[in-house]
Amino acid sequence: DAKTTQPTSMDCAEGRAANLPCNHSTISGNEYVYWYRQIHSQGPQYIIHGLKNNETNEMASLIITEDRKSSTLILPHATLRDTAVYYCIVKAGGTSYGKLTFGQGTILTVHP
Amino acid sequence: NAGVTQTPKFRVLKTGQSMTLLCAQDMNHEYMYWYRQDPGMGLRLIHYSVGEGTTAKGEVPDGYNVSRLKKQNFLLGLESAAPSQTSVYFCASSYGRTARNTEAFFGQGTRLTVV
Question: A98 and chain B: CB distance < 8 Å anywhere?
């Protein structure tokens, strides 16, 4: 699976949009971009994933560049409860059996 | 619908003792995984299973054994615990054998301390 690079930490004001970037320049054609978050040492929580089109769900939006070498997770109206470590993971389909390779992630701190 | 349930939530072991961590899922998922997370680090895959009766090694399998006798359960065993196995252990499950990737669901973790 391709390697990802994320900033170590980011801050965001409550109510504002949080934009978390991720670089995955070695991504290959069959690899998906996944985002998970981990709140205060709880089990990781799935947020969203995509292949090449932008995706949106009730939690967030995922913007993937046309060349697929980077992506941005957008939390449109961040709340204090969104303070967490956010992991960007690139994972191949097929026989990878859903194995996830977690890096260090981005520590997002939402301020009042 | 409980999702993924891990038992126990906390445990303290002495060096050399053995124990089994239980993971149960009620979503009829094919795939199950055991990860460990050390302070300040991301999760690392220990073992995984792609179906009942099957297991495979992950990134850090040494010192652990697993079994998947029933589809809904995935057991992680420590035969002779060592202080280096002090960690938080997470179980996860996901659908399998589908053309479209799907997400993994995680349990709340087991905090294990080996003294």
Answer: yes
